Predict the structure.
Amino acid sequence: MKLASYESNGRASYGIVENDVVIDVGTVLGGEHGDLKAVLAHGALNEIESAKDTAPRIAIADIHFAPVIPNPAKIFCVGHNYESHRQETGRDKTEYPSIFTRFADSQIGHEQPIILPAVSTMLDFEGELAIVIGKGGRAISEAEALSHVAGYACYDDASVRDWQWHTRQFTPGKNFPGTGAFGPWLVTSDEIPDPSRLSVTTRLNGEIVQSQPTSDMIFPIPLIISYISRFTPLSPGDVIATGTPGGVGAKRQPPLWLKVGDRVEIDIPGVGLLINDVQAEL
């Protein structure tokens, strides 16, 4: 099942994506479950299925995609989690994953513009597989970790490199408005029993700039979930972006920075195709 958050006629909602329509179950369930995060928090995915028959259909062309989870309580990102990216950055191997955070209001949806900040010329792409937590928990074991996943989506953890490099802390460069592209939809975990068998490809203006299987992650998804849950509780709707493959623009010679008019595509077969064009900050 593919689940999307969106706006239609000025109204926020959510629904099931089937071919070229969205089944707008948010109009049926919205009184009790106002958004997808609430659906997950209430363990109500089965109610989405039961609402299909009475929910209206909307053409995908008539909606504006929002971030899959517009209002996650927490967004975690994993740094240097593919060997190719670790090598190109010159980072030492580590025993534990590098974790940083992104703010919810930095996110955008499918086909919304990535914003090139007025204060930077070093905007970079980072295609990633994102996890959405469906069942909360603390100190989750690796053996149980995947049972806590509601589903998967594409993510572009676009990075403002000069601000990222002001200090050793990543936070400023990872939280400019309009830089966390998340979508188009969530594919529920029952359709992806083994997320290590996926592949992440990033295209810039139609040219492949990143491509690697998720099996090449240094820290696999169950370990990431378990590790994060040991220092903070995970809650339904929390998001984890699991790291980017090698090939980022900052480590190319010469560097390949995003510019106004560029199109970035994050393609994860079986999950989705996330497309965003680059616009200048107004």
Notes: The mean pLDDT is 96. The longest helix spans residues 221-231. The chain has two domains: 2-65, 75-280. Residues 2-65 form one domain.
